Each structure stands twice: as structure tokens, then as C-alpha cells.
């Protein structure tokens, strides 16, 4: 197999073929070996076929007599020709359909480059927070040779180095090669590291401190494993489509929630000295067609997003991330407005680097770079993993090509210098030059083998020498600093109780509730495969199968579990064995049929069900990344119904626990009289069992709130929420025409009743809200105070029109627009945009009292709308409510605390397309509502 053939294979397939070329077996990740072996077994060609299929009634020897041999061949061919005819017919039918459709599709070919050009690329080093780092970086870069600079901008290639992404060093100036590793649930492919709860669970905690602490523990592990650049957190997908395959990597279907969670995570990671990467910029909302060739089409899809929607929705959390000082941004696979994200000058130069004032470096998602010089000019700084257009083809779009481009003047040297300076400045900014923190040993584990010894460049047939690659450094922390503590806290607080009829929960360790003393043994049945260990947490590559208890989605965002506490094991341990008898039924086979007696015998039945999804390069049972619906998987609905029907012969109480990558439809059984309690446990990571035990037994009072809406059907989320499963053009088009109206905003706009609304979650206690007070700290004015710092525009010579044509493949730069220096954004000026956008204009306080019988935490949420604005702003289309604040507060029984929210200028503004700026409606009043969920708003005030 030559390297170009390999391109369409899975990444794991690549390693396999190189080991074949090398004529030896190189260590595979254990789970891959079986797949390799079985694929070798079926490697038959035509002669093999003759050998294994002698004519009937003849011995194998006589079958090779000349005339019989001829007959055998004829027969073979007769069989083959039938086969061939069928294949041909299928092909003809296929091509006819395609030709007919093709004509139609070609008609629909979008015009290239609907994204306006924005050149030249703004250089970094424009804000005081980064000035020291830029000074040092400039010194270092000045001393680098051209190949050294190029080394830093270009990954070495897939599996060329121990991390998933590796860049080369600048040896003469002592700048090391950097390792880039996934994120965001933990350290991918690492041993002795923590499998934290996924982003969606973190979002469900609504707890800023936990968000920060999880980020810090994650960053700490990355640093101790020698990772320079962590490929997380993730805020794109935002959650436009509830069935989107990777929503679980992010924090929930609202830009404000995502933004806060991302900023806290980034602070945590970067305080540890590791460069965080916010991804995927931007509009990577579904897996289907996200990438060229992965879905059989030469081009990726285009997410078509209008200016206001970009600012208020998909770009919003990136703004928070830049404000938090993030060191890297990963541009996404697909196109935005028909220009690839990683070569989209409007996005990278205009929005990210000019308006948002991003100071770090833009790296491509793996193979998301689709052009050479053009993407450099459009603002891409680092090409990852450096392979070029196809996996491991060895034809980088940069590397030597970038050197040539600089030498022949296609890419100004100032742009190259800026690319490199941005990387080196981020390295200084995180303190990675400090040897006491970053020992200089580099990465101490291999992504490509679990053995101690392995190849540094596993992807190269020329690397024939094994060295020590896995040092098995345990980075999980110990004692009070064990990261399992924070993992468990997040999992517990990210668990959402949505139904608790008759206060059936919490259960007592002694079984019978204190007010119903009983001599009988209390019987608890635990049902469902999702409660149990299954084949172990790491049974499938990158966790791409749904078996055993679900604690993570699949793909690059998943990790090797060091352990996974399953709910069954944790619950069995939890109850008083003298008083409570626990029965296990760890399968999804209908218990009514299999074990009716078991079911009828229970006082309480706890049933575990789930729904899984992941990244598009893997699939499981017809789920190609994105889910095909929002139903429970593995007949979960039937399991719940049967358990609820039969539990305690109809008198039992059923508790349903759902592990899920996102929203699921509960309506098939939510009103079943036997279903007394329902818990959305999201994706809890390694501490799953302990977390659910804490909640079920009331050791911890539930305080999670839904980070998404639970609708009654997928259709309820609106047309914009539908994944595009079938191509609607040669470049599939997803028009984000619903604009600001996703998730709860859509439900509000169309008056649709959800099963449970965004922000909803119950507690074992009750809270009372009172005394809203809005203080105007700064007077209203429509626009932020003008602010522009000195801009370091590149001083480059304009290339000839032919060069320009060569450079701009998709991004629609005509030579005219290429010459034109774009006006600087008035909304820019500092990191995260104009610094006035971050000033606090209003502060809101409310009193919250714990009126129940146990201590607990409440998440108070603040939403705004423009219902009472006047003047021009009356024409502004604004959602019924938009989240603009949340605070989690702990309250003892009867305790009251004042909770304060700060509203920035950005929070109160809308993005005005005409003014190209954030605008506060200054006539009339902005309505502020505070409450316990998006539909339980108890207090109203005005600014
Ligand atoms: C994913 C990224 C990931 C990268 C490296 C890509 O397929 O989209 O999120 O960081 O692979 O593993």
C-alpha cells in the first residue's frame, strides 16, 4: 500500500500499514491488534479464491488436473460474472441517480467565498498583558533561521513524535519542540491520568469554582506529563443540534454558560503553565460532512452564520476565552460562509485577531488546513498535525513549502515572523521557559503504544529503533490533592435531579424511610447494562462503543480510564447489608420476561439507561458521530417501562438514572405512575458510581441544573436543530437561519412546552427568592468608549495578481480587496475586544433563603430581555430571555444570603450589524429577571 492510498483510512489504520512496510510488528495500542489480525485474515485475492474453493466431490489434488482446472476456472468466472453483472448494475443505478442528482447538485454549487476578505493579518503583541512575553519572543525569533521558524509553524506529521501533535524545535536558540495533546476530558492516550467528567457535566454544575478547579487539575496533569499545549476546552459545538455528536465535549447549549465555563477552565489550565486551546473555531456543530473526504465528498460542509449570530452565539464563548488570555485557538474543519475556517481571513484576521485582539496562535484542527499560502495570509499560525491534505501523505502544505513561499515572496516574512512570535510569546506567557516547572524532558508518554519501549516516530518506516517512551508517571495527585476528589465533586454536582415525586429520594442506607419502620428486609433492584462494568471502560478504541456504564462520549475528547467506579458496585457497597438486600440485573433484556419474580419482589427499582455519541471518524451501530435521534439507546425506553410496570408488582418505586451525551426524550415514560424519580447524570467520568451513590443516598444534596432543554421531541427544537445527514450539494450547506434561537430561546419564541427547561434542577431542600435590587454603576450609553491601541500592521509588498490567484483558493480575495487594508473594528482594542465591553455597568443582588430541612446549594440564574426598551431598539429582534449571569450559593437550613450578579456592557448589549459594534439600548429599560431556572423566574428588576 503506498502512502497516498492510506489517506482515507482511519488514523489507527495508518500505524498498521507502516508496520507492514517496515516488515515487522510495531507495538499497537492493545485494542488495535485484534482488528489488525482479523483484517489480515480476510485479505484474499483471486488465486486465493481458487485455492480454497475446489470443485465439489473432487479432492483438492484432482481439481488441479488440466481439464478440471479449466472447468474450475470457468465456474469461478461464471460465478464471478454473475457477481460482476450485479455489481455493474448496482454501479449503473448508482451513477444514474448520482448523475441526475449531480446535475441538480452542481446547479447548487455555492459561489466561492461568501466570507468577505480581511487582510493583512494583524500582528500580535498589541496589549500590555502580553508585552513582556512579546519582547522576549521577538528577541528569540530574531535569532532564528528560516527553517527554524518554519519548524515551529508546522507539525511534524501524524505519529511523528509522541503526542498527537508535535512541532519541531529551534535548536540554535534553545526553543524546544512542543507537544500538543487532547483534551478536553482528560489527557488522551495517557496512563496514570484522571478521566474527569465531560464538559457537559461540568456545565451542569453551574459552579465557577469547580470549573476552575477541574481546569487546574487537568492542566497540572498535562504539565507533569510534559504536554505544552492542551487541546481543550471545547465550546464549538455550542449545541445548536441536540443530536450533534460532540456536544458533550462542551458545557451546554448556551453561549454565556459556555463562555464562563471556558474562561474558568482556561484560567485553571494556564495557571499550571500549560497553553490551553479553545476549539473548534467556529460553527463545527455536527459531525456529518465536517471534514473533506471523511464523508465521501471532496469538500467539507459550510456553516453559514450571519454576523449578529456569530457575535452573540457561536463566537461569544471564544470572546470570553480570549479575554481569559487563552494561548491558542483551534480553527475548525468545516467552512464558514463557504470559506474553510482555517483559511477564512474574515474570521481569523478580522474577527479573532483584530476585533477580539487575540494574542496567541491559531492552530488548525487535524487536517483542517486546506490551502498553503492562503491560509497563512488568512491568519493561520500553526499547521497540525502537519501532514498536508491527507493523513501521513508526507506532503505538508507548509514545512518546506512555507520556506519556499517566504523565499519567493508569496508569504511576507513579517507574516511568518508573526506566526512564530505568537507561538513563542504564548510559551513565555505561560512560563514554559521556567525549567523548575517545565523540566525540559519533554513529553513522557507515548500516544502510540502502551509498552515502555517504543518508536519516537511511530509513523515512519525509517524509525527502527525503540527507546524509552512510556515513563508511567502518575499524575493523578495524592491525599487531599488527589484529582479524583475534584472529579467526584464535579460528577456529583453535575448530576441533575429532574423528578422526585413524594420525595422518594434520598434513599436511606437502612432501606425503609425513618417514618416507616419495618421488620422486613428492604429490597432494591438495580437494572440495566448502564449500571454495570460491562467489558470494562476501555473495551473499545477511543471509547467508540456503548457498552457497560456510560461515563464518556467517544473520539479524540475521550481518554483511557485509569478506573471506572460503576454504579452497581458503588451502590452494593452503600447500603446497610443487615437491612437492605440489593439484587443486580445488569442487562437491558426485558426483565418482565426474563425475571418477573425479581422485579415483582422489589421495594425500589433503580434503572440505568443511556445515550451515546462521539466524533465522526468512528461509528457505533449506525451512529456516525452524530446521534440519529434523541432516544435512549439499547431499548432503554422499553427497559424503563417494564421496570416501572413490574417493580414491586406495581407498588414499587422506580428511580431512573440517565447517562447521556445530551438531551434525550423522556416523554415515553416520564408520567408513568411507577416512575417516581429521574436523574440526568450526564457523563460523570471515572467517579461515576461514587457520584450517583452520593446523590441517591443524600450524602450530597443535588444542585446540578440542566445545561440544555429536555424537549418532548427532536422536532420541538426547530428546523435549525436538525443534523444534515444527507448532502444537499457538492459543498453541503447548513444555514444557521434560526439565528439566536436555539435551545430554550427557540422554545420560548414559539411557546413550546419542554419536558424540563434549560436551567432546571431539583434539590432535597427548597429556596425562597426575595429583594431584587438593581444598581446602575455606570450610565447607559449606546456604544463603548472608542479605544484603539497601536496596531502592528504588516508592511508587506503586494504580490502580483498571478500570485494572488494562486494563493486564494476559496477565500474570495480579488487583487483589489487584497490590496485594501481593512478598517479596524471599533469593537476591538484589547484582549477580548474593547475593554469597555468588560466594564460592569449594573450590579444586581437578590436574597436567597434555604426554607427546607437540609443544607444545600442553589444556582440562581439571571436572564435579560428588551421587552421594555424604547426608541430605535424597539426594532431589535431579541429573544424572550437570554442568560446573562449565574451564581451558585451554599445555604444552611434557614440561612439567607445575598447573591450578587455583575452585568458588563457586553452582557447588556446586542450586536448591531449596521454599526459593527455592541450597542446598549439607551432608551427605556432593560428587563432583568432572576430565578431558579429559565422558566422559574421569580424576581424582576430593570436597568
Ligand atoms: C479533533 C480535535 C482534536 C484533534 C487531535 C481532531 O479530529 O477534531 O478536537 O484535538 O483531532 O486529536
Keywords:
alpha/beta, globular, 6-stranded mixed beta sheet, signal-anchor, glycosidase, binds beta-D-glucopyranose, 943 residues, Cellulose_deg_GH3, 27 strands, carbohydrate metabolism, Probable beta-glucosidase E
How would you describe this structure to a colleague?
This protein is an alpha/beta fold. 28% of the residues lie in helices and 16% in strands. It has 26 helices and 27 strands. The strands form 7 sheets. The chain has a 6-stranded mixed beta sheet with strand order 1-2-3-4-6-9. Strands 12-17-16-15-13-14 form a 6-stranded mixed beta sheet, sandwiched between helices. Helix 21 (636-646) links the parallel strand 15 (604-611) and strand 16 (653-660). Helix 6 crosses helix 16 and helix 10 (255-271) packs parallel to helix 12. The radius of gyration is 29 Å and the shape is globular. 56% of the residues are buried. Residues 164, 182, 231, 279, 365-366, 556 line the site of beta-D-glucopyranose. The site of beta-D-glucopyranose has 7 residues, from loops. Pfam families: Fn3-like, Glyco_hydro_3, Glyco_hydro_3_C. Beta-glucosidases are one of a number of cellulolytic enzymes involved in the degradation of cellulosic biomass. Catalyzes the last step releasing glucose from the inhibitory cellobiose.
